[in-house]
Structure formats: C-alpha cells, structure tokens
Design brief:
It is a single chain. By secondary structure, the chain is an alpha+beta fold. The protein has a single domain, classed as Alpha-D-Glucose-1,6-Bisphosphate, Chain A, domain 4 (2-Layer Sandwich). Strands 1, 2, 3, 4, 5 and 6 form a 6-stranded antiparallel beta sheet that branches. α4 packs across α6. About 7% of the residues have low confidence.
Length: 182
C-alpha cells in the first residue's frame, strides 16, 4: 500500500470514528425536508410591500413588466388569483471556484488520489409573486426569489435568495413604474 493511500485511509477512519451514528436520521431528515423556516414570518414581512391607491390588477401588470425588464421569462400567470412566476437562466461559473477545484485535483493527484472536481456551471433564478387586494383601493405584493444551481457533475441544489435587497430593489422598480404610469 502506498503511503498516500495509507494517509488517506487513516484520515477517513479517524473522521468516521468521531461520528456517532444517529439511529433516527431518516425521521429527522423527513421532518426537516418540508419544515417552515424558523424566521418565516419575518421573511414574509420583508418580502411583502403595500401599495396604496393601486388596484391588484394594475400592480400585477407593473410587476410583470418589471420582471420582464429584469430578464425574466414569465412561466406561469394566474391573474385571477394574483399569482405570477418567472425565471431566467444565468451562468454560475466563478473563476475562483474553478481554480480552487483544479488546484485541489492537482494536489491530490500528486498524492496519488483521484479527485473529480466539482464546480457550479449554470443557474436558474426563479421569482414568484403574489398580489392581494387590501380593501377597495390598496394592494400588497409579495415577491420571493430562489436559484437552482447546477454543477459540472449535473447535480443541482436550490438556494433561497432571502437578502432584503432582492425584494426591496424589486419593490423600488415597481413603485417607479407605477409613478411613471400615473
């Protein structure tokens, strides 16, 4: 056995020895899979804005135009229910991530260990909007964003984009469009 294989085997064994097997891991994973976020109420509040003196229909039209201006393709629209969804494809390749993976591959190859580099290549950014009338003259809009990232190995992961600037920036554009139309 080569020294590098022995070192890799010893490291893997020591890491495995430190981990306690969890007998109930499947149940815990199932409960977490669809569980709401701990900060769901605060997140919903940050993703929602009130638009005084704006009908739900007018708000939905303006939100659609803003999404299209941002490069989104409208995929689903149910104006009677105040729901709209769109997406846009973007490159997710980051030079630093690729360089790091190549360096890791070369370093491990020098130790005689085969490693298949993994890095992000593509992403789909999705936006989901819901509108709701508030009384007879006001409306509110909720917008949420997520991205689905695919790696060079074909694996995908979903990431919620919950930073405040996503929704606040969107609301600013909607307000600006409504002001121009008034």
């Amino acid at each position: 056995m080569r020294l590098s294989h022995f070192v890799a085997l010893a490291a893997a064994t020591s890491v495995a020895a430190c981990q306690q097997p969890d007998q109930d891991w499947a149940n815990k994973a199932a409960l977490q899979a669809g569980a709401p976020l701990e900060n769901a109420a605060a997140l919903r509040e940050a993703q929602t804005a009130r638009f005084p003196e704006t009908s739900e229909q007018r708000l939905l039209v303006e939100a659609t135009q803003v999404l299209q201006d941002l490069g989104f393709t409208i995929e689903e629209s149910a104006p009677g229910y105040g729901v709209l969804a769109g997406s846009k494809d973007r490159d997710a390749t980051e030079a630093g991530q690729v360089v790091g993976q190549v360096a890791l591959t070369v370093g491990l190859a020098l130790l005689g260990v085969r490693y298949n580099p993994v890095y992000d290549t593509d992403q789909v950014i999705r936006a989901t909007l819901t509108t709701q009338p508030l009384g007879t003259r006001d409306s509110q809009l909720r917008v949420s964003f997520e991205r689905i990232v695919t790696t060079n190995q074909g694996l995908s992961r979903v990431e919620r984009l919950t930073e405040a600037e996503f929704s606040s920036g969107f609301f600013e554009r909607v307000r600006a469009g409504l002001a121009r139309a008034a």
